[in-house]
Amino acid sequence: MRYECDACSDILEVAHDLDRLKTARDGSSWRRLFDERVGIRSGIHRSGVWRYHELILPDLPAGSIVTRPEGNTNLYRSPRLEEESGTSEVHIKHEGENPTLSFKDRGMSAGVSFARHLGVRLVACASTGDTSAAIAAYAAQVDGMRGVVVLPKGKISMEQLSQPIASGCLTVALAADFDTCIRLLRDVCRRRPLYLLNSVNPVRIEGQKSIAYETVQQLDWVPPDWIVVPVGNAGNISAIGKGLFDLHALGLIDHVPRLLGAQAEAAAPLAQAHREGYRERVRVKATDTVATAIRIGDPVSYDKAVGVVRRSAGAFISSSEQEIMDAKALVDATGVYICPNSATAVAGFLKARDQGIIGAGDRVVIVATAHGCKFSQATIDYHEGRLTGVRPRRANEVIELQANAAAIERLLASVDGSEARKDGR
Ligand code: F0G
Predict the structure, then answer these.
(1) Is 97 helix (H, G, I), strand (E, B) or coil?
(2) Distance, CA 391 to ligand 1 centroid (Å)?
(3) How far is ligand 1, taken at its centre, from the CA of residue 320, in Å?
(4) H or E element that contains 395
(5) Residues 254-281: pLDDT tens digits?
(6) Which of 46, 167, 201, 264 is the most exposed place for a label (fewest CB within 10 A)?
(7) pTM > 0.85: yes or no
(8) Residue 155 CA from chain centroid, whole number
(9) Which atom of ligand 1 is nearest to the CA of 128?
(10) What is the tens place of the pLDDT at every residue in 203-238?
(11) Cis peptide before 69, with omega less than 30 degrees from 0?
(12) What residues contact residue 90 under an 8 Å CB cut-off, 6+ apart?
């Protein structure tokens, strides 16, 4: 149960034996192997994580694996975003379609599988909501294992809070922010036999890498020019970067996409560091934001994230609350329902496109990290004009009527009239 290096106290990272993997197969042979597994209906290879078992945790026996199965999420082409931004190809990788409705299931499948392999009984995390939902659901699948979650009180959505409670997790709320929750839990884990499953745990990162694998596989192994990711604790962008560099080293892809890390202005240490040329490590005190899951001022995977973003010739960017919620409404209205954290990536993309960081001819994938249904209050508040400091530019209000058919018909007639005027009829 170790997460940090004794010598430098930096967090550990899994290093694969790339030479062995290269000798085993060349790039096209790896691609063929993974393509053969798509659509399989049973066994671990039907999971969008364990389809790539050899590149995730090759030595973990299949019998230890705990899988729902996760992954296999849709990659939606977004004509609306292409049109809005004047970009030739934009896709949304909707990780909200995972079993607990966020991307965290991928890393957690790896983390809980490894915990089971080690014979661990208690697994723990601090969380802004989604990691706790995932640990709870995966721990609940293993006999004799229990999850412990530490949450910032009042800072996560009701839907997220309901998840660990429902799965029987030991659920602890602290009157503190996420940065404090994780600091305290890391401290407790040094003294107690708790297996920490935050993204400081390098095994989690290995599972999370599969977002990158699955995305490029869905694009027939032709990687996009950019992958845009919302950034909080910075585990996900580090994982996606690591996965892409591994694929490149093994000859599965011919270039590594540039990575754009998107933050909310209320919690944007990495965007600030980028602006300042990464002169020194930036820590901020996060303030309130609609993007509550990325309300983090001192990301644990800061160095890993800066490393992969710089190596990919990428960037970090930040957006305001208004930009985030408008971006969310824009995508939501296309029938792809995303959360405010995911919308931060959409807003970051639109801004990067505006500033010419991303070009008109670029192919772009935006990672939506959780489902809109996990954050329904933010959606409703926006459309009802109840979010402080945010104008409901794309509002779609609920219309309350008297309970009779005539009232509904009058409304429909007026809607029909205004639609007709819009069409010039
Ligand atoms: N989007 C969502 C929906 C998240 O829940 C998180 C992180 C992120 C983006 C950012 O990912 O931390 O790897 O940079 N949620 C964590 C949690 C912190 O506890 O659920 P990251």
Answers:
(1) helix
(2) 26
(3) 18
(4) none
(5) 999 999 999 999 999 999 999 999 999 9
(6) 46
(7) yes
(8) 18
(9) 19
(10) 999 999 999 999 999 999 999 999 999 999 999 999
(11) yes
(12) 77, 78, 81, 82, 349, 364, 365, 366
